[in-house]
Amino acid sequence: MHRLIRGFVFAVIPAAVAMMAVAPRSAAATEPGTTLIGIYRVAAGKHTEFLKWQAARDAIDKQAGVPQAQWYAHTDGDSWDYLSVGPVLSDAQQKKVDEATRAKGMALGFKASLEFRQYISSHTDTYAIGPMTVTELSAMASGK
């Protein structure tokens, strides 16, 4: 049981904190932002290559001036290796990223997807709204 609780703390709390850092909103905002959460299980022996591939993509985001994802490394508990929490880019932001990626001679689209898949055994992408307090979530659930 202790291991389950510790796994929850190490998996959920960092994700919640990261969502708050990536998608802050003012008290006047009425709609929560959307965040993209990725959970990665890396192929055996491919951790270093995966991290280098992702770091190159992260550098492109920085160069393009878009918000960078926050990354977490697994230490104990569930079976994931890395978790990322990042912004959902607008079309204009994605265009900047694509242009910077192309300028660096890096793969885009399906070719990039195939490159990515050589490093992982499985992954999930999940869209979430937030950050919010539980009071705000309760109000949304009540239709307020």
Give the secondary structure arrangement, pairings included.
Blueprint: H1 2-22, E1 33-42, H2 47-64, E2 70-73, E3 82-87, H3 91-103, H4 109-117, E4 120-130, H5 134-141
Antiparallel strand pairs: 1-3, 1-4, 2-3
Number of helices: 5
* Net shape: globular
Query: What is the assembly state of the chains in this entry?
Result: single chain
- Rounded to the nearest angstrom, the radius of gyration is 17 Å
Q: What structural class results from the helix and strand content?
A: alpha+beta
What share of the residues does DSSP label as strand, in percent? 15-25%
SSE string: HEHEEHHEH
Distance between the termini: 37 Å
Mean pLDDT across the residues is 85
Please describe the biggest sheet, giving its number of strands, its sense, and whether it closes into a barrel: 4 strands, antiparallel
Beta-strand segment tally? 4
Task: Give the gist of this structure.
Helix content is 48%, strand content 22%. With 144 residues, it is α+β, with helices and mostly antiparallel strands. Keywords: Signal.
List keywords for this structure.
single chain, 144 residues, alpha+beta, 4-stranded antiparallel beta sheet, 5 helices, 4 strands, 48% helix, 22% strand, globular
Written description of the protein model:
By secondary structure, the protein is an alpha+beta fold. It is 48% helix and 22% strand. The protein is built from 5 helices and 4 strands. It has helices spanning 2-22, 47-64, 91-103, 109-117, 134-141; strands spanning 33-42, 70-73, 82-87, 120-130. It has a 4-stranded antiparallel sheet with strand order 2-3-1-4, covered by helices on one side. Residues 16-23 have low confidence and may be disordered.
